[in-house]
């Protein structure tokens, strides 16, 4: 069988997470690939953590295209967040920006209350924000790194879910971003992979817990995707070949992942809960 040509990226690196899209070359593709929406999320209110860039930005735009107003929660990348807001508004929808640390439960409560005060309800929660810090040896993972990674990547999912549940009605949805590393592991992202595995279990358990409330809970497990988190995580030389080790021999674009979230947020997936979708370039992970 003829091999697929690998798609390489220019060497580049950013010094601070979560990174900025405007500093990437090329910039990630966030706009939906199909301009015309079908109103699948008409009049819905969606809260998206890490919605300023990467997959989160693409999800915000995909939701807006389908008729949803969005709340974008982000850490500190104000430029990216305002660019996302402008893009959402071009679809004729509202975008509320809320900046802060989702690893803090009080912030999550306050943010959700601000969203409800603005829009009156919450129909969709996308737990998406994450951080990662490569270490070749588990002995190099400090207590501070371990706690930070778990606080951002899984504690925040609990905090945000607890905050939104009181405002959700039957038919609402929760979508969690996990990762291919939850299934195949990663020798240099041990703590990150552990949080992503926890997200899979969290999704399955929460889906059973919320059945009586008719709130569906599912997840998306992307493979390698071209986002600012990548350029703010790995070394310049590693960026060149990022994502070329999957069967498609390239990293995905955020707008190739976002349709999974639209599907899970809409009634198209009304018979699904506790499940995980796998846009990962063809890796078979049997999950």
Instruction: List segments where confidence is low: pLDDT < 50 over at least 5 consecutive residues.
Output: none
Question: In CATH, what is the homologous superfamily?
Answer: NAD(P)-binding Rossmann-like Domain
What is the CATH domain class?
Alpha Beta
Radius of gyration computed on alpha carbons = 18 Å
Count of folded domains: 1
Total of DSSP H or I helical runs spanning 4+ residues: 9
CATH structural architecture: 3-Layer(aba) Sandwich
Estimate the global geometry from the Cα principal axes: globular
The assigned structural class equals alpha/beta
Order of helices and strands: EHEHEHEHEHHEHHHE
End-to-end separation in angstroms reads 26 Å
Please estimate the helix content. Answer: 25-40%
The biggest beta sheet is recorded as: 7 strands, parallel
pLDDT averaged residue by residue: 92
How are strands sequenced across the largest beta sheet? 3-2-1-4-5-6-7
User: How large a portion of the residues is in β-strands, by DSSP E?
Assistant: 5-15%
